[in-house]
Design brief:
Helix content of chain A: over 70%
Largest sheet of chain A: none
Structural class of chain A: mainly alpha
Number of domains of chain A: 2
CATH topology of the largest domain in chain A: Tetracycline Repressor, domain 2
Distance between the termini of chain A: 60 Å
Oligomer: homodimer
Largest interface: A-B, 70 and 69 residues
DNA sequence: AATGAAATTCAATGAACGTTGAAATAAGTT
DNA sequence: AACTTATTTCAACGTTCATTGAATTTCATT
């Protein structure tokens, strides 16, 4: 490990945690460096600017994420006899790596997903930043979905994916709202419960929309 | 209209627009009052504090929204012969008032929904604020869903609603990401296309999850 | 041990922040 | 027209912001 690397990682960890809680504008460099127990000036020394630090936080885990999701997709396609994976498997390959890391990857991953959930729905970052980090992978998944639903109109695939994406992102936002709504009968932190339910729910939606002629039927 | 009411509304309009674009912490009182073309001090004079102004923005349209959504639900329940509305109708009653106002209600409504989408997925506001403004209505809808799916386990209803909610919220966030992904084949601003597809997609998910014994089948 | 670069500390910068009090203006009431 | 109250303007408050330059310390390499 290089000389300043421990400091760099401590700053990234604190930035990740605080950005996840209050967003980019809701956190100051001073709060981050105080949480990391390092001098205020070190954030700018290591990352150049607050905005660069934000990008570094997003990038750090995005690469691993994209890699493992792609591997999972290729795996299930290789296992399918005709090279076309099932809808349920595609949905699982897309969501499982995220939910699994949020559930069992430690607090850093949990913060990371909370941050992604937040910026995903914001006009300031949602379009540009998310596109930059995740679109190549998503395009690959959509290609798989098209093969799994060969009769589908393209628009129905895109809207179905869009619904899927929204459901998934709200899940790992873990705002706890469903806990209140259900009076404690379900817990937003119980991502294993989601893993069980997301593929059948979403796959059924895809089939209803994409296997019939047009959205009305 | 009372004396300062025009100023109040101009401040609310500008605050709504700017908060939607960059979030609570990303906007300053000075930017808001400059956009509204009023003196800086007037925001504090009329609303007391920045935070109170934020709440006032959220509250302004929430009441109308809750009212019309509840009316729609009661309407379809009254029209159903046994008082139990269909899944598709419930989903439509929940989402249509939102999507319709975002599409045809003018730029203020569009900003409002973008703002709601943003804070819905944030830990800072998502749990507490959303609960405060919308939970009573959501509980009413969940009761209707339970009646439409009498065999369902409660947990499956809550998780299905959760997926529904995530899909809906991402829709009216309108970040434009789906536009890029589809190379312009679909447009995130085409909410009529969503109105057509959301009820069948979501209803199929509900049925798959809630009409079978457990999530695995 | 000496050297030199990298990392860290310290103090300070100018700018912008939310908020406020006092003065000025506008409008409704008598 | 005089009075009263609500609204608006103006200037400033103290605080905090991201960032920086210079001084100091740390550490790997000689």
């Amino acid at each position: 490990m290089k000389r300043g690397e421990k400091t760099r990682q401590k700053i990234l960890d604190s930035a990740e945690k605080l950005f996840a809680k209050r967003g980019y504008h809701g956190v100051t460099i001073r709060q981050i460096t105080e949480d990391a127990k390092v001098d205020t000036a070190l954030a700018n020394y290591h990352f150049g600017s607050k905005r660069n630090l934000f990008d570094a936080v997003l990038l750090r885990r995005a690469e691993e994420l994209n890699k493992v999701r792609l591997e999972k997709l290729e795996e299930i396609e290789a296992a399918a006899e005709n090279g076309v994976a099932s809808l349920e498997d595609i949905i699982d390959a897309f969501s499982h790596p995220l939910l699994d890391r949020s559930e069992r990857g430690g607090p850093g991953w949990k913060s990371y997903f909370a941050l992604i959930a937040q910026i995903n729905n914001s006009p300031e970052w949602g379009g540009k930043l998310m596109t930059e980090y995740f679109d190549p992978l998503v395009r690959r998944f959509i290609a798989a979905l098209k093969r799994a639903l060969p009769e589908a109109h393209e628009e129905d695939i895109y809207w179905s994916y869009h619904f899927f994406s929204g459901a998934l992102v709200l899940t790992y936002a873990e705002t706890g709202r469903i806990d209140n709504l259900s009076d404690g009968k379900v817990h937003s932190s119980d991502l294993d419960a989601v893993q069980l339910r997301m593929p059948p729910f979403i796959a059924a939606g895809f089939r209803r929309l994409c296997e019939t002629s047009g959205p009305k039927s």
